[in-house]
Amino acid sequence: MFDWIPNLPVVVIALLALAGMALITLAIYALVMRLAESERAEAVQALSPGMLPPMGILFALIVGFLAVGVWGNVDSAEEAVSNEASALRSAAILTDDLPSDVRVRVRADIRRQIENAVNDEWPAMEEQRATLSAVPAPLADALHVALRLDPQSGDVGAETQRQLVGSVQDALAARRERIFLSQEDINAVKWLGLLSLAALTLVGIGLVHSGNRTTTRLAMGLFAAAVAVVITMLAAENEPFAGQLGINPDLLEQVLNGPRLSGA
């Protein structure tokens, strides 16, 4: 429902988070003040401030849980892209020891794979519609070519063939990992849990300080701003390949623009 939010600039996400929390805080403040002025005012104002620390701890725990998942996915995605670029660069270097016709074919395959990744797969990953259903044809062709090499012919060494096959397989594995990670995000249940706990904590703050309107506004405003900061940080990196902070294909483009592939 809100999949479009991570694609916005961070400043816009922050403004939306602040506006949303402001509306929620105003609604809760109005409710709390109505209770504080009703016949239940005495019971409301007698609420113990000791309830706030446990609620704050619970909120911090769920934020920490979500943050570990989000930033862990980002780190893993960056590692996958780095591993893929490294494997493709190694494969390109190993083509130096191949017969000329095979060298041209494998380098063309590597080049096509990177171009497909940059032009087709990256936009699909940004929109979380990339899948593993299709095997990338260029890497599949490069792998088949490498496996068909005959070290006994003397045109290529057995070690070169083994390393070339390993590099192509590593590139395939890294590609699978980055596409899998492009689907990872905070699901609706987790967002609902975070927002619900934030709202409950705001209610608790309002009830505890309901005897003083100015104190209530300050306390609720400060906590709401903190929640908006948390939401901005999580939403901005919720999807590893989307938005202003999303991972870009620069490393793969560097391999593509290298001396061995730029003229392939």
Q: Any overview of this molecule?
A:
This protein is mostly helical. The chain has one domain. The protein is built from nine helices and no strands. It has helices spanning 10-36, 41-45, 52-94, 100-126, 137-148, 158-182, 188-208, 213-236, 250-256. The mean pLDDT is 91.
Q: Could you give a quick summary of the protein structure above?
A:
The protein has 264 residues and is mainly alpha-helical.
In percent, how much strand structure appears in the residues? under 5%
* Backbone shape: rod-shaped
Distance between the termini: 44 Å
Largest sheet: none
Features:
264 residues, mainly alpha, 0% strand
SSE layout and pairings?
Elements: H1 10-36, H2 41-45, H3 52-94, H4 100-126, H5 137-148, H6 158-182, H7 188-208, H8 213-236, H9 250-256
Helix pairs in contact: 1-7, 1-8, 3-6, 3-7, 3-9, 4-5, 4-9, 5-6, 7-8
